[in-house]
Amino acid sequence: MTNTFIIAWKETRSYFSSPTAYVVGAMFLILTGVFFVFDMTRPFAEASVRGYINWATLFIVFLAPLLTMRLLAEEQKLGTLELLLTSPVRDWEVVIGKYLASLATLATTLAFTLFYVALLFYFGNPDVGPLFSAYLGLYLYAAAALAIGIMASSLSGNQIVAAVVGIGILLMLTNIDRIGALLQGVSADVISGISMNAHFEDFSRGVLDSSHVVYFLSLIAVFLFITVRSLETRRWR
Amino acid sequence: MIEIEHVSKYYGDFPAVTDISFSVKKGEILGFLGPNGAGKSTTMKMLTGFLPPSSGTVRIAGSDIVSDSLEARRHIGYLPETVPLYTDMDVTDYLKFMGRIRGMSSNHVNQRTNEVIDLVNLGEYRKTHIGKLSKGYKQRVGIAQAILHEPDVLILDEPTIGIDPIQVVETRRLIKDLGGEHTVVISSHILPEVSMICERVIIINDGQIVAEDTPEMLATRLKGIERIELDVKGPSKDIADTIEAIEGVTALEHQYVQNGGHTTYLITSNAEIELRSKLASAIIGGGWELLRLQSIGMSLEDIFLQVTTDEYIPDDTAVVVVVEEAQQG
Known about the structure:
The structure holds 2 protein chains of 2 kinds. By secondary structure, chain A is mostly helical. Chain A has helices at residues 2-17, 19-41, 50-78, 80-85, 91-112, 114-123, 128-155, 159-182, 186-193, 196-205, 210-234. In chain A, 85% of the residues lie in helices and 0% in strands. By secondary structure, chain B is α/β, with parallel strands linked by helices. Chain B is 37% helix and 29% strand. In chain B, α4 (106-119) crosses α5. The longest helix of chain B has 15 residues, at 314-328.
């Protein structure tokens, strides 16, 4: 476990000593800021984050893989993975450590958006419950997106490939409920059941359902597991 | 300390290494010698557990590298051929990180990092980003991370490539000093280096061990053959017949007509018989001019060539002689 934190600490420092974290963070804040303003300046706007937080999930789809694309792809490209994996470190410690670093970075960025919430409280009287559930959902959504991103990063030594594959999987997983809506019966339920957006909807509405929390946590677990496996099979390739 | 038994490695159908076995005792420095693509790096990667062998077992300090990988890896310091480093970190931070993930305590890491940086002469670059270092300095960082945690087993894949001659000498001395306490395996295709540093040499070619001995023994092993080269002025066919008729000459390998009108002959013989005086008197007795008579020993290079190529190429040596003479003339 110590190894996980050593790796997480190293990666977090690396995020903040390179432009990646700042650029990705700034883009996210600019975009969410713009959509927050649009949302607030509509007539009869309500004091909630619901409008902008749906946009935030879309930006996460594109920005999370950009944050994670480096994590394992660069190690493969530079060959540093060879030193890392010949050290007395377990594969999962490497994966979890790197994942935690990306999580810390994106969580920090998301924390800056609490400024909008502060504005809501200053100028209006928002409901605390929906705010809380929306942010819990947003963090879970981001955490799942990062897990998918790191999985994509483990596939090859090419960061662009990692980013594209990550965004592709995310776009599919987030919007697959639109296909589900066209179908009927069990298949419709199954397809909607795996959609990230379908599970996120309740959070943004202020409904806290444990099944959605379980869904996102399982998604994280599954993709981290695939990442560890992908790292293992890399030795056989 | 290191035991390799019947190890093979296939990339798909391609056999990179086939059925190699050897062991290295504690404190020994083993040289791993071979031409490019012989399977040196593959073997190194299997020793460190980065690549699992297709068959056979590798044990480091008694632990199997596959089934008890973590324990085995604790004993290893490794410098891959490509010297992979995190280019966005500075030297000190990088070494500290490498020390920490190898299970060193924070205090121990700080102390050792300073020691090792001084040992490889990186004192001025403690806080320099690795990406900005030149190739030679990067190599030093690579060596520093390999010895940082004082591993029992040190595996260095071509450690002196890309560094300047002064540093090469220092690195070799460093490696030599590390033997005794540490078990060292280095791969190289530089022969003098191996004969200088190593107590034992394994020559590998096409994924198979073709020779294994001390550098001295390898050199003497092929000393059963002696080669003599001579320049004679006169009718070359008669001279060749005369030479071949002398007892003890196993072969007249080569003759080459030189610009000066004389001919160079390369003879191999049985080392037990002193041939030079016989050759000299036979040629002078024939009434020809003997311009030069020289015995040519076998260097480690010759042995290397001999065991790694199917055919020994005496023509090459003769050509070298021609060039030398052209320079002298």
